[in-house]
Amino acid sequence: MNLADRERIEAQLIAFCLRVIENEAKNIHRELNYKQNNFKSFSDLSESEMNQLSTTDTYFLEDQTFWVVTSENEMIKVVVVNSDLYDAMKRLPEDKLNIILHSYFLGKTDQQIADEVKAVQSTVCRRRQKILQLLKELIAEEGG
Predict the structure, then answer these.
(1) pTM of this prediction?
(2) Closest CA to 59 of 78, 77, 79
(3) What residue ranges of the chain have pLDDT lower than 70?
(4) CA-to-CA distance for 97 and 80, rounded, in angstroms?
(5) What DSSP letter does each residue of 49-79 carry, written as one string?
(6) 56 in a domain, yes or no?
(7) Pairing mode, if any, of strands 65-69 and 75-79?
(8) What is the pLDDT at residue 38?
(9) 76 and 122 co-located in one domain
(10) 23-24-29-30 Cα dihedral, nearest 10 degrees
(11) Nearest CA to 87 among 121, 64, 110, 108?
(12) Which residues, other chains included, contact 98 with Cβ-Cβ below 8 Å and sequence gap of 6+?
């Protein structure tokens, strides 16, 4: 191989290497732009978005469970995460406990609860308010 052929091959190799490096740089820039436009840093997330990414372990909360019977005779498991609230709710009579569970844990309206317990809606509303006050007192009594 003569000197001219060697220089030509070397020039072709250098040109090829430069093209590979340029194309790789373009790929890197394209990927960085994609990530910048499509991904968010954890520090940029709002509190509600951050809460969607988190979970609370409930392995040992089986002790803090109530079973609620609905009007359709379904059994629904309600886990109370706050132990002070659970302890206070345990001390409530069953009829009062059912009103709180249906209202706040099953999301039923006072009218729906009234239909189940065969009472007037205003009576259920008044009972619920008294039960909440009682729960506050029980929690305060326990030191929570």
Answers:
(1) 0.55
(2) 79
(3) 57-62, 144
(4) 13
(5) HHHHT-----TTGGGGEEEEE-TT--EEEEE
(6) no
(7) antiparallel
(8) 87
(9) yes
(10) 70
(11) 64
(12) 68, 117
Q: Is 112 helix (H, G, I), strand (E, B) or coil?
A: helix
Q: What are the structure tokens assigned to 68, written together?
A: 């609620």
For residues 27 and 98, state if they share a domain. Answer: no
Range of the domain at 84: 61-141
For 83-110, write each residue's pLDDT tens digit.
Answer: 888 889 989 998 899 899 888 888 889 9
d(CA 79, CA 84): 13
Residue 144 is predicted with a pLDDT of: 57
Q: Which of 101, 103, 68, 106 is nearest to 85 (CA)?
A: 101
- At 18 the pLDDT is 95
